[in-house]
Amino acid sequence: MIVLFLIIVGTVFVKSTPCSRDESLNITNGIAFENGSVFYDGLEYVDGSWYVLDVDGSDVRFGCPCIGRLCLWKCCGIGQMFLNRTCSDVDVSEANPFNPPVFRGREPSTVIAYQHFVYMPRQSCDMYLVDSNSRGEEIYLQENGTLFEIANNVLQWHSPVRFCLDMKLDDSSPKSRLVGGVCYPDQNSNGDSPGLFIAYGVGLMLSVPFLLATFLVYAFIPELRNLHGMCLMAYCGGLIVAYPFLAYLKLHTGQVGVAMTGCYVIAFIIYYAFQSSFFWLNVMCFDIWRTFSGYRGGSSTKRREKKRFAMYGAYAWGIPALLTAVTIGMQFSTNLPDHIITPGFGNRRCWFDNWMSELVYFFTPVFVLVVCNVVLFSITANRIRAIRQETAILKGSESSRSDKLKKDKQRYGLYLKLFVIMGVNWSVEVISFAVGGSNWYWILIDLSNIALGIYIFFIFVWKNKVRSLVAKKWRSIRGLPPDSTLGTWGTRSSSAPTEDTRVSAEDSGMRLREIR
């Protein structure tokens, strides 16, 4: 009974229409006849091929010209074409009348388009651009109104209501050429619900406060603001920039296309921010390797740390800037051979056009860095094993070197944890692109990427030593006396978790020589 009741209610309240809104034209001003037909703009709409809807309190009559006829959706209005990216009125033969070539497969047809099709205004869906003048792009309008697209040797067929065509003229070519706008695939084409993308975007935004908290703790506490702390701040800074923009794209999946202002800007910001974070992780791996490769006790001076950080910055910010410049150059280059892979930002989404482009421009540098980090960590682990044997016989007078080793080993452990979660995740990310399928299959990897900021916060900040320093700084800001319960970690003479404040006799001699 309940099912029958729902069926009856649905029949009463759901009024079907003979065609969708994208397949409809406003024929309110048409001439209605007693037999139920409506004549408008040279076409007759028989009874059953038109319908009436309430639009803003007024009854509007819509006709379905594609019932019994072949329709072709035109991206711009009648008498218009694309001048650069804008539809403009023109007085040229290519647009008056609009007569794109028609094919059977890839063979030219004798069909005349403007006599064969009923032209319809552009659909309401968000679209990506398909340009017949682009490398590896071919489009063929078929006699039955479908579009045959070849993109980077991938064959695709698009139903008539899912694309529009028009002519375009810009600085990249002296002659106008045919371009198409293709509706983005449905978000759930791979079985992924919109909720999955929303959850991913929200998760990324939840990770940002933890990254920001890590950055601020290391920025405002002097004991943490050493070379290793500044490298960690730079690494977190890249993720702080990348995550909000990536979350924005996830929350607008299927809605952000080439028409969106700033599409290119968002893509290049995400690209640079992620690359810089990977390079800073590589810097931290290199620095811990350098520490153990020529190990000796004591700590370096602030001046030398700043100089080294400047060199690290030139590498970890400069190389990503160079990679971004190359990517931008390839994105906007023209007249390249067909076999050259370009990024394709903005073609189908505000990111790389396809998996191959992402592999070449994004994941190749990442893989190189992951391999380098594996080598550096392996060498460092072997060196730690050797040093452990050497320090086992240290005497009390050499305890400074022993303490320094202990703290550097702790720092090595922190960086190793960070590398494992970052390197392994992104390695599996590449595999997931190659295998394909629904994002549900790789949800655990996505969750670990989302939680990266939380993970960083807990391994670098949520520790007794750092919390004691934060408490000390907070009491100092409020003008309160030091808390005796903080113990040795609450004093300046104590060692911060990533810095040893002791100075060995060897380093003291070196500094005296520098002064002289």
Features:
five-stranded mixed β-sheet; disordered C terminus; elongated; Methuselah Ectodomain, Chain: A, domain 1; disordered N terminus; 516 residues; G-protein coupled receptor Mth2-like; alpha+beta; receptor; Methuselah_N_dom; 18 strands; Methuselah ectodomain, domain 2; 3 domains; Rhopdopsin 7-helix transmembrane proteins
% residues in beta strands: 15-25%
Work out the radius of gyration.
32 Å
Structural class: alpha+beta
Mean pLDDT: 77
End-to-end Cα distance? 99 Å
Total number of helices: 12
Which stretches of 5+ consecutive residues score pLDDT under 50?
1-14, 187-191, 487-516
How many distinct domains?
3
Side-by-side strand order of the widest sheet = 9-8-17-18-13
Described by the principal axes of the CA atoms, the overall outline is elongated
Classified in CATH, the superfamily of the largest domain is Rhodopsin 7-helix transmembrane proteins
